[in-house]
Amino acid sequence: MYILCICDNPGISQEKVAESTCIDKSTVAKAVQQLLQGGFITRQSSAEDRRVNELYPTEKAKEIYPKIVEIIDSFNMGQLEGLTDIERDIFIRLLQKVFNHVKPKP
After folding, report:
1. Taking the model in full, what pTM does it have?
2. Where in the sequence is the domain holding 80, given as residue range(s)?
3. What is the annotated signal peptide range for this record (predicted)?
């Protein structure tokens, strides 16, 4: 999910990754370190605020991004198998509504 977040938002800060994924900062920091070591992302200090680290996907991350999306889509469709199109739409809207209430407010 970190690769998805960073690929979808190049230059995102670690703090914003934590906020958008609803995962604590220390866990995100550990994952970022692993992604850096694995060559999936790069980290640069922000030109506007040197205290902020901006995260960018590497070509390695961009190459696997479509496969990750495909796997997630396949999993999601499998979970929704047996539901009608209307039921799927209602279910997804309800999940989004629940997620918006769970997501911490800035």
Report:
1. 0.76
2. 2-102
3. none
